[in-house]
Design goal:
This protein is mainly alpha-helical and about 270 residues long. Helix content is about 65%, strand content about 0%. Helix 1 (about 20-35) runs antiparallel to helix 12 and helix 4 runs antiparallel to helix 5 (about 105-120). The protein is elongated. The two termini are about 20 Å apart.
């Protein structure tokens, strides 16, 4: 296997969807424009970042994400999914924490296995952006359908919880138009290209800004410039006002474990 040791590979970025990447790009470009001039090392990559940002804003992926989704319907469906997952988790936690003897011990162990297998990070995935949460929900539902897990669910009488989650999940997918996205098939790969290009340009920009900063050392003008230019990235908040910021163009959410549309830029 050929390994890559490019300096760009060491630039870690947050997980970004098209809308989040566009919003972050807006902030980075805005602070750069406040500077009287950019160093020769930084200026060319800044121009490439700006061009990639424009292309991203014109892409079908971005336009679909910020225009075609009914924010109200998405928020309502998201609330139902969150509520149902929370109820199931609480039910399992009740069994898992039970101190008992006899036949009930087996149920306690089943509950603990479900908690560990389906909720390794608790309910944190419910705070992720809409589309990432949808993907995380799908992954957990797929796991619950596996024979061993399904047996645990049945033994604990938790079937109604899973059924309610599955029903809410389907409505969630419809609200997010995830069914339409899946139907696009191979075409979806092409519309991801502007996001991938923006992420690559952002990596290069970060690398060149930090390289310029290192030439001046701690407390130097170069270091101060880098801090100003990269402040939007350093303070990037992924929660926005509307329902934890899920799906909103202004922000993203905490890095997730997987997803359909967002690119893991880290």
């Amino acid at each position: 296997m050929t390994r890559s040791f490019s300096a760009l590979d060491f630039v870690s970025l947050p997980t970004l969807s098209s809308a989040g990447a566009f919003a972050l790009g807006q902030q980075l470009i805005a602070v750069a424009r406040l500077e009287p001039g950019l160093p020769p090392l930084v200026a060319p990559v800044y121009e490439r970042l700006g061009a990639a940002h424009v292309t991203l804003g014109e892409s079908r992926t971005f336009m679909h994400e910020v225009q075609d989704i009914d924010a109200g319907a998405a928020a309502e469906a998201d609330l139902v999914v969150d509520t149902n997952w929370g109820a199931f988790y609480s039910y399992l936690q009740g069994w898992a924490r039970l101190s008992t003897r006899g036949e009930a011990v087996a149920r306690v162990e089943r509950a603990r296995q479900l908690v560990e297998g389906v909720f390794p990070g608790g309910l944190r995935f419910l705070r992720l952006p809409y589309k990432i949460e949808w993907a995380e929900s799908r992954r957990r539902l797929d796991r619950l359908r596996q024979p061993d897990y399904a047996e645990h669910v049945e033994a604990l009488g938790a079937g109604p919880f899973v059924e309610a989650i599955d029903e809410a999940f389907r409505a969630y997918g419809a609200a997010l138009r995830m069914t339409d996205l899946k139907a696009e098939g191979k075409a979806q790969i092409k519309v991801r290209e502007p996001l991938d290009n923006f992420v690559a340009s952002l990596r290069a920009y970060v690398l060149h800004v930090t390289t310029h900063a290192s030439s001046g050392g701690e407390g130097s003008a170069e270091q101060a410039l880098a801090e100003r230019l990269l402040k939007p990235l350093a303070t990037w908040q992924t929660k926005a006002p509307a329902r934890k910021g899920k799906g909103a163009p202004a922000g993203e959410g905490e890095p997730g474990e997987g997803g359909e549309e967002p690119t893991d830029a880290g």
